[in-house]
Structure formats: structure tokens, C-alpha cells
Amino acid sequence: MGRVPLLGFPEVAAVGAFxxxxxxxGRLEGVAVATEEPPPPFPVGRPVDDEEGAVGAxxxxxxxxxxxxxxxxGLRLHVPSQGQAAQSPSVSGxxxxxxxxxxxxxxxxxxxRRRYGTVATPIRRMSPRVLHxxxxxxxxxxxxxxxxxxxxxxxxxxxxxxxxxSGDDTGPGVLSLVTDGRQSLDFFDAVDPxxxxxxxxxxxxxxxxxxxxxxxxxQRWTLANVALDGQRFGAEAGVEAGVLVDLADAxxxxxxxxxxxxxxxxxGTDALEFTDPVAAVAREAPRLREAGADHVVALAHTNDxxxxxxxxxTGVDAVLAGHSHDRRAAAIDGTPFTRPGATGxxxxxxxxxxxxxxxxxxxxxxxxxxVADALRERVAAHDLDEVVTRLDEPIARDRExxxxxxxxxxxxxxxxYRWKTGADVAIQNGGGLREGPPLSGAxxxxxLVSVSPFEExxxxxxxxxxxxxxxxxxADGRALDGVADYWYGHVSGMxxxxxxxxxxxxxxxxxxxxxxxxxxxxxxxxxITDLEFPTLTESHAVERSDLQYEVVVxxxxxxxxxxxxxxxxxxxxxAE
Length: 576
Description:
The chain has a 7-stranded mixed beta sheet, with helices on one face. Strands 16-17-19-20-22-21 form a 6-stranded mixed beta sheet, with helices on one face. Strands 29-26-33-28-34 form a 5-stranded mixed beta sheet. It has 16 helices and 34 strands. It is of the alpha+beta class. The longest helix has 14 residues. The termini are far apart. The chain folds into 3 domains: 96 residues, no CATH class; 245 residues, Metallo-dependent phosphatases (Purple Acid Phosphatase, chain A, domain 2), CATH 3.60.21.10; 188 residues, 5'-Nucleotidase, C-terminal domain (5'-nucleotidase,  domain 2), CATH 3.90.780.10. The radius of gyration is 28 Å and the shape is globular.
């Protein structure tokens, strides 16, 4: 039988006489055995990649002789009865024993009649599925974490499943920082996805770095609304406007789009040219259907409003969203909409025929050892496993604490900036601190760099008291994106209390005087973006210090991590 390819490849020889030396690759759909008793339970419908006769061995333990396999087809299997001439199994429109009777299915495995009788499984059309991951980001910095994502995808995939990522799957993170995102190839090579789109953080290491990952990764990449110098970004490396993927019984089209606000969020992307992501999907989806797609999915690394509009207005069969770390599964005007959240916590599975959605806890899966080992080697090679300090009381790094108000880790980072620069006040934006496993026990260089893994310096800005008051007001989530109970600024050297008309900040116990000047230490990013703290501009900068993560590591070496809650922010949003 040789290697049995997946249905949809040019040559399909999916039915054949079994020999333990044969390599079987695909989805096990039928097993023919010679036995007078029901065969032992063996999960038909599961993916197999059988290099050493494990399928035959599983039956052989019970003294069952496997005669034939049916792998990855929608056809029925016929085995000649005793007395018929020995020949290869044939495929026919019906199946039955020599008396023309239909073979039953027993215990989830192909049924039996009698010794040497016909055993067959009538195979139904396989509904196409999608396995959707996104925003893996700094999961690479905890090798077992991303290895579990790979393990889950390996467990769930099959010839009927499209494996797709919707961006920010190369970074940000510590390993992404030191390898220009190429640590993601360890994951991609193991998972072998079908398609990927780019997220804003995939551009963190520059255009050439992303092109290199695209060129060297096994999956195809789609990005329909981003151009550079008048040409689709990355076209020379293989980025396409849309792609077609042949699965077992269906062809699925995929189109990827990116948030036009990337130029505001990601330094160094000013040269990118964007079109409206909703219009781009609406343009590409019919083209993919005309080219043969039975279903079309959109990979939308966009803001929530645009992602929802893609689901409601473009006629796609599913929206696989990313960008926001708020996990969600919904039906928008009948269109399945999934967003797995960040750091490899979850993978969604979508049935494209029924629209059914299943959420899988990736961290409950067995890790892929090849991925874990490869990433551990990268950590060791860059001396990222050096222990800097110890922390007896763990510090959580989840979304609720990052954006929920006063946070021990936010206090620690802001304290580090003020310690390094001598500024009156320091502010760290919540979006610049990344989610991940809690800091606990031995805290390494990798742990600390992963808190804010960006090559952005800490800068000192000179602001008036009136401007500082505006900056404080802009930390309220309602001012940034209309989200109540979110707070986007972690502070040092300042306390903020709620007041009738907003917030009252104090420095050294005194209310911030509108006419006085204050020095403020912040990430440089806050001076070059209008998305957060728009009061701050590059014209406010008066001093440039070291990179954010360098400052944090240096501070931890000298002072440890003695972070506590001190009432720096309004009680209504305090969290820990």
C-alpha cells in the first residue's frame, strides 16, 4: 500500500491490503479483519501516522489478523470472501459479504461476519473543521506551554481539518526578541498549519524578519489589505491575498486582514499602506468561491468592530479573530466567530457545515516534546535562564490584573523606571505589559524580559501639571476605548483618587499643580502613538534611558521584586 496520502492530493490510493511494513498516514476510516469475534475497540475516524505497524499491532495483541485498511477516503471497502481469487481489495458503490448482506459496524470499528468474510465501513462525507489558534505571543518563553498547543493540534487534526492562525503567532516575547521571531518556526514546523495571517506584533522585528519567517515556515500566509511601496506586503516571500486549501471532502478558502491601526501600535510600520479590512474580505471571498472554495473563512487580526463587521457583512462562513486577548465564541448574524485569547491558553474547533464551535483547553493537552526541547535549547543558548531574584509570593499576570487597576507587577515596573531616571513620576501603560504565567520562585532573565519584551527605551518627559492631570484621566478605560472598569496606567511617585469630576492626582502628598512642571518616566511608545495617552508627544521628551526590559532586570538585580499594593490607584479598580 505504501504511504497513503490524504484525500485531496493528486494521487489517492487510500484502500489496500495491510502489511505491517506499510506506512499509513491519514484518517483511519475502516479496518478489515479475519476473526469470528467482534474486533477489539479501535477508534475509527482518528488521525494516524503509522510508521511501524502500530495499527496492526493494536489488533495483533488480541490475535486479530488485519487484512485491509481504509484511510482518509469517503469510499467503501470490499474484501474478497473465502474461496474468491486473492486480489487487492476493490472499491465499489456497495459493500457486503458473499451473500450480499450489509456488514454492520461493531463497537466503533468495522463490523464482522465470519472468518474470511467481508468487513467494511460505509464512510460518510467528512464535515470540514477548523482548528484555530491565535496570539501565541510570549507562550514561547515557557516552552512547555506552546508545546501543549502543538500537542493539542496534533491530537485534533485530520484530513478534514484546516489548521489556521490569526496573527501575533511569532511574538512578542523574549525568544522573539532575541531570534527575530524565528523561534516560531519550532512551533510551525511541528504543527504544520495550513494558513496564517500576520498580526501587528509580527512586525515588531521589522519587515525583513517577518518576510524571512514567511519564507521559511511550512504554512501559506494571507494578508489582503496591506501593501508596501504599492505592492502586497510580503508577496515576494509568499504572502497571498487569499488561499485555497483542499481538505478531505471540501476546499476551504482563507483570507487574512490586519488592523489599519498597526502603524500607530507598532513602531517602524509607518511605510505600510492599508485598505479597509472589511472591504478586503468582501472582495476576496467571492473570488475564492469562484476558484472552487466550498467554504471561506476570514482570519481577522483587527479591532472588535471590524471583526464583527466581517462576520456580518461579507458572506464568509466563519471569522477566526485575533488581536484582542478577550476570549470569545459567538454567532454573529449566524456566522461563527471565534477568538482564542492569548498565550496559547485555548484552541477553538469550528465545524464549517453545522457552525458548531468547541473550545479546547490547550494547557490540558500533552506537550509535544520536540517543540519543548527546541525552545529550551534556545532559552539556554541566549543565557535567558539565569536566575535574577526569588519571589516567595507569586504575582499573577492575567488580563484582569493587567488592566484592572493597581497591580503589584505594574507598581514594580513603574518603580523601576523612576529609580533609573530619577523622574518625579513614572507611568507604564497596561498594554505594554504582557500576560503570561505568574512570576514565582526563581525569577529568570527570561521571566523579567517577558514582562515587556520590546526594544523601546524608557524616556523622561517634561510636562505641566495640567498635562499630567490629562494623562491621568486618559488612563481610564472609558477614555481610551469606552470600556468601564479598565485602567491603563500603572504609576510610581503618584497617587490617584476618585473625585466628583474625575480623578485627583497627588505627588509627594500634594495635589498636582496645573502651573508647575513635572518629570515623567514612560516607555517611548507613549510619545509616538495617539492610541494611548494622546496628551504625550515626542516634543515632551527631555532624556532617553535604557531599554525597558534592561531597566527592569537591573532594578530586580539590585532591589529584588518587593511589590505590594499601596493604594496608588482608585479603590474601585484595584485588583490583586
